[in-house]
Amino acid sequence: MMLEELVGRLSQPADSKVCLLVLDGLGGFDGMGRTSELAAANTPNLDRLAGEGCLGLHDPVAPGITPGSGAGHLGLFGYDPLAYEIGRGALSAAGVGFELRPGDVAARVNFCTLAADGTVADRRAGRLPTADNERLAGRLQAEVKIPGVEVFVRTEREHRALLVFRGEDLAPDLGDTDPQVTGVAPLEPAPRTPKATHTSEIVSSFLRQARVILDGEAANFVLLRGFDTHRAIPQFPERYGVRALAVAAYPMYVGISRLLGFTTPAAHDSPEAQIATVATRIGEFDFVFFHFKYPDSAGEDGDFARKVAAIERMDGLVPELLATGITNLLVTGDHSTPSQLAAHSWHPVPVLLWGGSAPADGITRFDEAHCRQGSIGRVRAFELMPMLLASAGRLAKYGA
Amino acid sequence: MMLEELVGRLSQPADSKVCLLVLDGLGGFDGMGRTSELAAANTPNLDRLAGEGCLGLHDPVAPGITPGSGAGHLGLFGYDPLAYEIGRGALSAAGVGFELRPGDVAARVNFCTLAADGTVADRRAGRLPTADNERLAGRLQAEVKIPGVEVFVRTEREHRALLVFRGEDLAPDLGDTDPQVTGVAPLEPAPRTPKATHTSEIVSSFLRQARVILDGEAANFVLLRGFDTHRAIPQFPERYGVRALAVAAYPMYVGISRLLGFTTPAAHDSPEAQIATVATRIGEFDFVFFHFKYPDSAGEDGDFARKVAAIERMDGLVPELLATGITNLLVTGDHSTPSQLAAHSWHPVPVLLWGGSAPADGITRFDEAHCRQGSIGRVRAFELMPMLLASAGRLAKYGA
């Protein structure tokens, strides 16, 4: 039996209001004269909760594995990411509310800029304004024609969009066309299995037409990644017996929450707006997933000071979040994004568990170094949900 | 390959005398002004062993999971409780030496007291004297009649008994009839699968008859839980290549030891009597499981001082236990039972490993806070047995 199945069986109701607060990309890279952003940040509220709760570190997937956002969040929601794979395409679809059907093939689109020699000049087309994205997505939607295949192009935000193919005998086993670096040509959508050859040809046809349609536009091509299809995944509210609310500022996090069955109001403009939603709707829910994006964005940009400021901003909002009625809180990240590396990384992520029967380690500082000393130890992300639910009185005893 | 299979393959003989000392319900709930019972206890002997050995914490099943005694002990014996499930019924049967056959359905019985309105007034019938239990079990055994089904009722101790049904097409997938609280009516034995419907009707028939037979008695009804059947489980002595002795004061712990193939003298009256058995028989054995029940009983009763006293009592007996010839010792609990919660809990359990090649952490105090700092870290219970056997020279190298 997998742990997550057991946790599902043991779920029981309680009066607690549980919150999973994800500071995206929270973890940093410290030691040897380096400081992590969390260690540098002034976080009096999180430090107070640390003293009253317990600390540790988690590996989102497994030690050494750098996760994408999908895998990172699956782990936090208590699903072993080695058992459930969700591609970026399926996440994008969920994020914009596009309902994938079995057999559909979906991919994440980046509108990009190619140089005159056909190499990638900017993978994000200068973070294309959303209005331009909508216009270009509309053109692709209207003008691309592939016999026997329906094509859907949906704007997400800035340079990001969703692409879906619907037809007979499609398979998602394709390599990304996004080379992840500039100065080289986009890749072909390479089939990874024989049955994806047909789909590869369809995607190539789409790309040839897109190249013509977008010629001369601010974004003159698209990069595709995360080919995926519809996935059946156990629903979070049923599994844990909770009424579950997700509040997030970015469509992708709305999307993964929606895939798992959370009630997902549309993406919010700010964490303050997210808190306002929690305050209004907390009475209807037992569990709140609160996603705060900015530490990751800053880390990805290599901006240490901005990541520190983002962490401090959320710290300042923690009392207001708790004041909505939250009784049990897990604060962590979906992965580390050290600004020194300007990318997601494999470093374990700080964890703070507070409230209910969570023991108090008596460590009054929330950062990587202090988390190493905490009683949670170093666990897999999917082992956190049982502790959070247990501390909130939501898990019955196993066995006689 | 599961870890436990590897450990079995690597087992080798040695001259060591290994002891697993289980202080039932050892772990507590500390911090935030709370103190754990172990931290409050004066334990000079365990503290001395702590200084000479190494410390850590274990999760009996997994982080966040509150285990019953069966799952808790399976973990300590090196079996992943997520892979082996043993119900209370099978444990009770083993405890009283009743040999379940494949197809039997067994349940743990509580003799209880119903109020005039049919609701449960006392789940334990005032901890019914064992002599009364024997008389009432005898009446049920003699007077209940179910066509085509053999019924066995066996006294355990106080209010506890074993009930076994033997017949065609029986299935153990039934819900407990014990509502776990007073003031409500006992539950019906709800079938969890279609094939258990027939068994549900048989159990209901037993309960209707029991109600009539016990009318007017000190215990006027029975509550059933942990429906289970015969389980094949790898035997401990064969797996680890040890001659294994279990000394315990309660039938259930004798029972689980017997299920796993330990040599199990009848339940003892006191830890002193258990030590006397070890002293007499140590020459015949390589491994001793020593079960000490009282910290759990006190914790369950919410009695902090009595749990402290129980821990101190066992601490005082440790030199005598070691003097029997024990060379390697693992001291821990099967789960936590904080008196503040008056119940089993999910909190990780202190671990002390001493002797042979166990490293010395140099931490001279055995309690939760110091165990957090120990070199064992926080592990699953089933990861302790390999360390205990290794420290005792009983595991060969894996691979060339």
Attribute tags:
Alpha-Beta Plaits; Alkaline Phosphatase, subunit A; homodimer; 18% strand; alpha/beta; globular; 400 residues
How many domains, in number, for the residues of chain A? 2
CATH superfamily of the largest domain in chain A: Alkaline Phosphatase, subunit A
Q: What shape does the CA trace of chain A take? A: globular
Distance between the amino and carboxyl termini of chain A:
17 Å
Structural class of chain A: alpha/beta
| Most extensive interface, chain pair and sizes | A-B, 35 and 42 residues
What series of H and E elements makes up the topology of chain A? Answer: HEHHEHHEEHEEHEHEHHEHHEEHEH
Helix content of chain A: 25-40%
Oligomer: homodimer
**Low-confidence spans of chain A: pLDDT under 50, at least 5 residues?**
none
Strand composition percent of chain A: 15-25%
CATH architecture title of the largest domain in chain A: 3-Layer(aba) Sandwich
Biggest β-sheet: strands ordered side by side in the sheet of chain A: 8-9-1-10-11-2-12
Strand count, sense and barrel status of the largest sheet of chain A are: 7 strands, mixed
Number of strands of chain A: 12
Number of H/I helices of chain A: 14
Radius of gyration of chain A: 22 Å
Supply the CATH class of the largest domain in chain A.
Alpha Beta
Mean pLDDT of chain A: 94
**CATH fold assignment of the largest domain in chain A:** Alkaline Phosphatase, subunit A
